[in-house]
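User: Fold this; tokens only.

Assistant: Input:
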Amino acid sequence: MHPQPPRRTTHAYGTPVNRLVYDRWGAYGRPVVLLHGLLYDRTMWWPVAADLGNACSVVAVDLPGHGQSAPRGDYDLESLARDLAVLIAGLNLHRAPVMVGQGESALLAQAFADSYATRAVVTLDEPVAGLPDTVEQHLATADLGTIPAPYRQFAVARPDATLLRAYQCWFKLPDAGRARPHPVSAVRPRCRFPHLRSPASFAATLRDLL
């Protein structure tokens, strides 16, 4: 009989001002932190997390203002990386995480690795330059038709122009939008939404980094 994958549980970290909501799978092993792109939410990682099974402890976080995480007055990249570091330390796994950033969260994953111990950084759908001016332009690049129908439900964006503008500060930093290899390991799939095109294959890539 095959072991059952760990059940998903939902948690919250922080105060009402900086509250981050996250899902967790598994209580042991190396933490794998999954970060979604702007206007999406943590549910886009559910298929991959389920495929990872008991190989690690998976955490999928809602960015501030997304999903169930509270909006903020300041979306500073370094402050959010610091909040993630405290959240990860609170898991008591005592191992450097694998950071996975989709879309604009590639910048957050790299900012985390620049300041905190990190096993590997995986980025996908990285922004080429700054954010587009409108939500419509931002979502036009999604190309959801290439995602198998059962997984499209996990890539539903919230068309919030105010939220998009709030994250413009990420692109005013030096080197924003440019890939910077992490010294341990870096994997950058080139197709859009590779984690939803084939969750099992993407999960296998992450297992190789543990």
